[in-house]
Amino acid sequence: MSTAAAAVEQLADLIREADSVVALTGAGISVPSGIPDFRSPGTGLWANVNPMEVAHIDVFRRDPERFWLFYGARFQALEHKRPNRAHESLAELEQAGMLDAVITQNIDQLHARAGTTELVEVHGTIAHSSCLVCRSTYPLADVRERQDLRADGVPRCECGQPLKPDVVLFGEYLPETALARAEELAAGADLLLCIGSSLEVYPVGQLPAVTLGAGGQIAILTQGATPLDSRATVRLGGDIVDELAAVCAALGV
Description:
With 253 residues, the protein is of the alpha/beta class. The protein has helices spanning 3-17, 51-54, 57-62, 64-78, 85-95, 110-114, 140-149, 176-188, 207-213, 240-251, and strands at 21-25, 101-104, 119-121, 124-131, 137-139, 163-167, 191-195, 217-221, 234-236. It has 10 helices and 9 strands.
């Protein structure tokens, strides 16, 4: 048995034995769906643009046209993306009663589209946008229509103010309720599956330490090193889609 195959079997055993399993996912799980991660050279979302110049809350407030020139293109790029087998594997584990919840740093809706029901989106979602003045909220399809109606590409509320995607921009705090729920899940997990995340973006990057501090274990499935590799009970660094499918097969899911 290869080292990777042995690690898959070990991970399946850990999931079987755990009373509570929680997944924490980052950008890497959506790359097979055709969504770029953030910092891969040449292809990452921030490879050719300074995020502080396009995705900061101050930019949105000062120059919504510049902000939406960037975000509008991103919305269009995400419109036809679909969950991949890794998203589906996590949904199947949840349906089988082997996974309590998914905490995700992603805003792309792919976990929900795959069927995950207990989902904590700590960085928000592109599913809707809101007016910061009157607090009205509009679904994504409506926001796209409002973009198309404006020569400057800035979707606006009925009150006339620019709409902001309900995602966490640079310069903003994470939603308190979502972060508190994520910390609660991490503290109660016997096993935290860290999937497709560098574990370097805080405060979400501290969740594995919360699990470890409460006596739980972590498994890391991602390409590239993370600061917690040495503390992982299982470390897999191959293809996330194949590895999660293999874990599901080992569990009979």
